[in-house]
Design brief:
The complex is a heterodimer. Chain A is an alpha/beta fold. Chain A folds into 2 domains: 3-169, Rossmann fold, CATH 3.40.50.700; 176-293, no CATH class. Chain A is built from 12 helices and 5 strands. Chain B has one domain (2-51). Classes of the chains: A alpha/beta, B mainly alpha. The interface between A and B is medium-sized, with 22 and 16 residues.
Chain lengths: 303, 54
């Protein structure tokens, strides 16, 4: 009997499902085992179809994206009710993702920037018809409903998603990470890593074999979990931390700041220079993690 | 320094974070620094984290 699966999308870019689709012929091994009962971005199911299923009648559910509107919140809670096993797909759903950086601003500021001030806007107007109510801040989905497993990544690799589904068909949940990205990164690292110069990622061309941190690029590897196969660092691009914090790390950004603090050679680089070179601290260290951080949004003094 | 910059971006006054090295034999320095820091915190008032942490 095919396994019933529902694939829901909340506020997101569809990249995680695109990554799933990127399995191409690999899908042939998985899809015949599945009966898709809801995937509103691909198949013609409506919310009322999902609402009409019996509670707990769907075997596997996946959630992509964050709760940005009341509609997203409704779908997330509905999915939890209808699905036996609920998987968080991607870093948005797992940590809050890039959308989480909007927690640095109020919703009024964000709407104004997007619909009024943006350089490409021709007729400035904030839409108010037939749109669900926006939520003030992004809260990680796992603080709203309980999940059975998490597959972070922006997006999770196609192998990650395929392996997780194959495992789930056998009744196994994806294993938790054991190492950091540095452990799976093929670049050569010195016994003691020291940073003697700092570069933004557009400056110069990195040596193809040496550790990016040692070359002065801020690479989130030490604070990030394994899983992606060091895709970016293998291609010469510093890690931005999309897979989220490494094992036993509570706050990815704080961990990275702490790591940098102990490997920068302050006789060559002054603390002031470090701050100046980093520029956007929240964007650099919390690119995908801000809503899950210890301080999850910009705090404002009570008026 | 980096952490100060970060908490500033997150809306917390960077003066609320202070790191000093004081040896066990420098009792008077500890008193001085603590009094100074308490004074500063009183000046700043309650942390925005406490009043806006829902």
């Amino acid at each position: 009997m095919p396994v019933k699966i529902a694939l829901a999308q909340l506020g997101s870019c569809w990249g995680c499902y695109q990554s799933f689709m990127d399995n191409y012929e690999g899908l042939l091994d998985i899809l015949p085992e599945l009966e898709i009962v809801f995937w509103h971005t691909v198949t013609d199911f409506k919310y009322k179809d999902l609402e009409s299923y019996e509670d707990g009648s769907i075997d596997i559910g996946t959630i992509e994206g964050v709760c940005r509107t009341e509609e997203d919140l409704h779908i997330l809670k509905l999915m939890r009710k209808k699905c036996k096993v609920l998987i968080s797909l991607g870093s948005c759903s797992t940590y809050g993702g890039i959308y989480g950086l909007l927690n640095l601003y109020t919703m009024d500021e964000a709407l104004k920037r997007k619909f009024i001030e943006a350089e490409s806007v021709a007729e400035p107007a904030i839409p108010d018809e037939d749109v669900p109510k926006m939520l003030d801040f992004i809260v990680p989905n796992r603080k709203i409903v309980e999940f059975d497993a998490f597959l972070p990544g922006c997006p999770p690799t196609k192998e990650d998603i395929a392996n997780a589904l194959v495992g789930l068909l056998k009744g196994e949940l994806p294993p938790p990470p054991k190492r950091t990205l540095c452990d799976e990164c093929p670049r050569e690292k010195s016994e003691v890593i020291t940073i003697r110069q700092l570069k933004r990622d557009y400056e110069g061309i990195p040596d193809p074999d040496k550790c990016l941190l040692e070359q002065g690029y801020i690479c989130m590897g030490p604070a990030t979990r394994e899983g992606c196969g060091a895709l970016c660092t293998s291609a010469g691009v510093p890690c931005r931390g999309c897979y989220g914090p490494g094992p036993n790390v509570i706050d990815q950004g704080a961990k990275m700041i702490s790591a940098l603090g102990s490997i920068v050679d302050y006789e060559v680089i002054s603390p002031e220079e470090l701050v100046e070179k980093v520029g956007d601290a929240a964007g650099t260290f919390y690119n995908f993690f801000l809503p899950s951080g210890i301080i999850s949004k910009t705090v404002r003094k009570a008026k | 320094m980096l952490l100060r910059k970060l908490i500033e971006e997150l809306g917390i006054e960077p003066e609320r974070l202070r790191l000093e090295w004081i040896s066990a034999s420098e009792g008077s320095v500890l008193v001085e620094v603590m009094n100074d820091f308490v004074e500063k915190l009183k000046e700043l008032g309650p942390s925005p984290l406490g009043s806006n942490n829902e």
